[in-house]
Design brief:
By secondary structure, the protein is an alpha/beta fold. The chain is 41% helix and 12% strand. It has helices at 22-33, 45-57, 72-86, 110-138, 159-163, and strands at residues 13-16, 37-42, 63-66, 92-95, 142-145. It has a five-stranded parallel beta sheet, sandwiched between helices.
Length: 179
């Protein structure tokens, strides 16, 4: 065991997007409880502070960074901060952040559709591309993408959301650098 892995050989530092509520919050707290170094993202300083306070109230250590998943510069800054906190970049990414889209297809604005695509698809893939270089240098890493049951089982008023493309989900080691 070294400072970069847990006793089980699992990644020690994990960047969790959308860590301020729901599955993201539960995941961040569980990973912190397991002894991992967790860096959670939040859309505002108030939410980041609340995340850290929630962890502390449970006797857990957790860092938070403010990030807007729709802003490439904000994502780069968040990953750079995570790299500073983790000594070179997170060992794992839990790409959890996402927003729902409900309503009749004919009632949804194109701007709202684009916002959801930007967060749920483009933002997720952006985060993957930002953390992969450190994982490649290290020769290991993990990326977990979190989706919704609504992606597989459409319900009334969620047709557009269910039809939306999703980032690929796979298992394995980070791809080797080209060349």
């Amino acid at each position: 065991m070294n400072e970069r892995t847990s006793g089980a050989g699992c990644p020690a530092s994990v960047l969790v997007t959308g860590a301020t509520s729901g599955i993201g919050l539960a995941t961040a707290l569980l990973l912190a409880r397991q002894g991992r170094q967790v860096i959670g993202t939040a859309r505002s300083k108030d939410k980041a502070d609340a995340l850290v306070s929630t962890a502390r109230a449970q006797g857990l250590a957790l860092d938070a960074v403010v990030m807007d998943l729709t802003d490439p510069a904000s994502c780069r800054e968040a990953v750079a901060r995570a790299a500073d906190l983790s000594g070179g970049g997170p060992h794992a990414l839990v790409a959890n952040a996402g927003i729902p889209l409900t309503g009749a297809i004919t009632d949804l604005s194109e701007d709202r559709m684009r916002e959801v695509l930007e967060v749920n698809v483009v933002g997720t893939l952006r985060m993957c591309t930002l953390v992969l270089p450190a994982m490649r240098r290290r020769g290991r890493g993990r990326i977990v993408t979190v989706s919704s049951v609504g992606a597989r089982i459409p319900s009334p008023m969620s047709g557009w959301y269910a039809a939306m493309p999703r980032p690929p989900v796979s298992t394995g080691s980070p791809p080797a650098p080209p060349g």
